[in-house]
Specification:
The chain is an alpha/beta fold and about 300 residues long. It contains 9 helices and 8 strands.
Length: about 300
């Protein structure tokens, strides 16, 4: 979220875990994050937030009402690095939220981050001009509720902009048999998400959820994200190389926590399956891609809102 010209929800979300590892020495009360209250209260809060859970050699957030599938350690942060919109729009006041204080220490003066959980009650009312969300798949149990909170938090005439990768991989080269890693990925991730109560296959539903919440001018774009540089189109080749890198580095982050906690897999089984997935991701002969869903909509301006209520 963000005041005035806003940009909020960034990835966060769900699953269950045991032991806690204390990483409080690794993070100070970074100036990128807002803190209030006495120094002792702030130190205590930071200590609690940074006492991350450790599972299978990776760390995960402790703050929040749900458990995110994604780790928050340095390896995960490498592939979550994103260009800051605040640089491109210096006139905007940009606020980002996350479950862990892992954002870079240097940020533009018009940008700040807060530790927050979009799954709990929102206190914002007609506060933002824009709410941007991406890659929240598998992290929300009540999607219509979260979309309604976005609607309430936007000023009349404000916009929501949402981007989600599709869950399923498709090959234009051949009909893949049921035992292929790509087919198994879709099935297993769907099952793991359902068991956690937070679906991963949410891309096709976004447009309908926005319309049901009352947004107007709702527009959906379904864009094929190629995997690798097999496409003859220059833009798709560039996109495919980045997507291949994202998947190679992140495939285990996407599934490991869900598979071990919700599907009772052993860590070694996750390793083997992810090795099969990486082999498929690196295979240019599959001509593989996944759909990405880009959906945006507008909250009716004040006059229209009043007319609707009349």
């Amino acid at each position: 979220m963000a005041d005035e010209h806003t940009l909020p929800p960034a990835p966060a979300a769900d699953v269950t875990a045991p032991a806690a590892t204390d990483h409080s020495d690794e993070t100070d009360a970074d100036s990128a994050y807002g803190h209030s209250g006495s120094n002792s209260e702030t130190a205590s809060l930071v200590s609690e937030i940074t006492k991350y859970r450790e599972e299978n050699g990776r760390t995960y957030h402790t703050y929040g009402s749900t458990e995110h599938w994604g780790p928050n350690d340095a390896l995960a942060q490498d592939q979550q690095d994103l260009r800051d919109v605040a640089d491109q729009h210096p006139q905007a006041d940009v606020k980002g939220i996350d479950l862990s204080p892992i954002q870079p220490s240097w940020i533009p003066p018009n940008c700040r981050f807060e530790i927050d959980d979009y799954n709990i009650e929102w206190l914002d009312d007609e506060k933002y001009d824009l709410i941007h969300a991406r890659e929240l798949l598998g992290t929300i149990s009540d999607w219509p509720g979260v979309i309604e909170n976005c609607f309430k938090a936007l000023k009349p005439g404000g916009w929501i902009d949402h981007a989600e990768p599709g869950l399923f991989f498709v090959s234009d080269y051949d009909t893949l048999d049921e035992g292929h890693a790509y087919h198994q990925w879709g099935k297993l991730m769907s099952e793991a998400g359902d068991k956690a109560g937070m679906s991963f296959a949410i891309g096709p539903m976004l447009k309908g959820w926005l319309e049901d919440a009352g947004f107007i001018n709702v527009t959906e774009r379904r864009v094929p994200w190629t995997i690798g540089k097999w496409s003859k189109d220059p833009h798709e080749r560039d996109l495919g190389q980045w997507n291949q890198l994202r998947l190679e580095r992140g495939i285990q982050d996407f599934c490991a926590r869900r598979f071990t906690n919700k599907m009772s897999w052993r860590p070694e089984e996750v390793e083997v399956f992810c090795a099969r997935m990486r082999a498929a991701i690196k295979n240019p002969r599959l001509l593989a891609y996944q759909l990405a869903y880009f959906v945006y909509g507008q909250k009716p301006p004040r006059a229209e809102t009043q007319d609707d209520q009349a």
